[in-house]
Predict the structure.
Amino acid sequence: AECEALDTELDAVEKELFGEAATDYVRAAALEERRAAIEKLEKQMKEAAKMLEFEYAAQLRDQIIRLRGEK
């Protein structure tokens, strides 16, 4: 909920400063960055599990869940 409020506030600021088209561009760039971060974390998580570092793998899993917006 807190993250959603921040996203809404940032959207309003972006629209005010850059207009609707730029806001869409910023949102798309942020989404692509998030996807890349998730992909990197997934690889790290799998490698940690292979190395029997299950606690670290679980921390990475939790970061992935937060980035995806899941609970």
In short: Residues 20-50 form the longest helix (31 residues). The chain is about 90% helix and 0% strand. The CA atoms of residues 41 and 60 lie 6 Å apart.
